[in-house]
Amino acid sequence: MFGAFVHPPLKTAAAMMTMTSKNRKLNYQFLNFGRVAVMFSHSASRSSSAAVSRYQQQQQTSQQQQQQLLQRRNPQRQHLRFKQELLRCTARDQSGKSTCRGIHTEPFSQSVSMFYSMYAYLSHLPRLHALGIAVFAYVIYYLIQVVKRPIIACAEGPFKQYLFKKMPTLEHKYWPTFWCVESRAQTVLASLLRSKSLPRVDYRREILRLKDGGEVALDWLEEGCDERAPCVLILPGLTGESQAEYIKCLVFAAQQAGMRVVVFNNRGLGGIELKTPRLYCAANCEDLCEVVHHVRRTLPLNCKLGATGISMGGLILGNYLARKSDEARTNLSAAKIISVPWDVHKGSASIEKPVINNLLGRHLAGSLCRTLRNHLEIYRDIYQDSEIDIQRILRCKTIKEFDELFTAKQFGYAHVNDYYTDATLHNKLDHICVPLLCLSAADDPFQPLDAIPIKAANQCTHVAIVITARGGHIGFLEGWWPSTKDQYMCRLFTEYFTKALYDEDGEFERASNKMHERFLAKQTVQLAATLNAPSAAVLVNQLEQHKLKLM
């Protein structure tokens, strides 16, 4: 019985054990299936999240593109947003009231916000609008700073009254070429245009032998001129000659006005060989004296003679008028100088300024060296054992260096500064007694404005200086496209000499006589201050006799 009582539980336990093992296998299979499902769910979630992120990025990209498109179509909306943000930042800065060592930052924040607002407006401005604003600003600058009426530096009296009455160009504004107002650009472009457009002039050449054995060339142009037509003597610049572009410009202008022209080529220039070692300099006017006498003898007695000098030619002519005042008044009726370096010291310093001025100066120094190289044979034998080193001179890079090593020594100056002082004109105007009209530009790269003797001219009886705001050195271009036939420099040249030399109504001669009376009276007062009373009385009697002769 006992055995029968125990046996059934053992069977039940065995059966339960068998069921437990089956359940374990089943649970293990479910567990593996769950793991696979979890792994699948994780991968699916990752792929879905990646797809969502890609979709969000695409949405953001499309939104940014739409915003950029809207900004391009309507930049004012972005400017308003930017301005609102700046106002918030400014309000935040003002609410903070931050200070740094007692210095308030409110003005600084306001200036920064103003700067950035302007920057945002300009940076998003359409290109055509920006170009229009730039052109409008340049037009305003051109009308205010460039186009101006020339300044006339002249003493009140007969000469100034005559100029304003007979020369309408002086009362009008000078309109430089709209797209070429810079001084160096005017200088270079004028030279290029004239050299390309003006033809070669067919002169009649005359070789004049001077007292010391040297020779100079005088080129005459008299075609179509009347026998009584006046004559104008032209003196070129530093290395210029009769075929230089600015000389031809004046020659054609004089020919159109019916006047004779003779161009004085300095020694060694114009294709003339040197017969003596001496060249030329701005302070020496001996050759000009001989040329003026020869031309005066060649012309008919009733033919009036005028003279004009350009650049260094103006220095030579000005020194002749100042040093030989009585002789000049006898031979010349009127004179004119263009773009003259009044103060040679300041002019030399100005032409050596970097960069463009220095390049122009190097070009002129190279022209001087080429002139010397063309006559090298005559100098090798003469200066072989002297202190003048020709090879070193040929390597000069500036005009002052050439003058220091050659010109000053050849004409007997101890130093180049002594030569420049002797050549300077601004302190010699009181000695001139021939009506002299001068044309200078305030932006001349060879002559600064502060070197023009405006105060001295305002006290002189015979000198009038016309100063234009622009024009460069022998430039004076005008018009949208500058014409070589009708330029400001040539128009002033023909107006002055046609009125002064033809003088059909005799008004210029009467004005000249009145000017000379004032000149003599001024000289008498100056001499009376240094002499005693009897000598002053003698001078007054001489002045009265001279007035009777003029009447």
From TrEMBL:
Annotated spans, Disordered: 51-74
TM regions (residue ranges):
none
Instruction: Enumerate the spans annotated as AB hydrolase-1 domain.
Output: 230-326
The UniProt entry, under Gene3D superfamilies, shows:
alpha/beta hydrolase (3.40.50.1820)
Any Gene Ontology biological process: medium-chain fatty acid catabolic process
Q: What is this protein called?
A: Phospholipase ABHD3 isoform X1
Q: Which family is this protein grouped under?
A: Belongs to the AB hydrolase superfamily. AB hydrolase 4 family.
* GO MF annotations, alphabetized: acetylesterase activity; monoacylglycerol lipase activity
Known InterPro entries for this protein?
AB_hydrolase_1, AB_hydrolase_4_CS, AB_hydrolase_4_sf, AB_hydrolase_fold
Q: Which gene encodes it?
A: LOC111603475
For bias type Low complexity, the affected ranges are 51-73
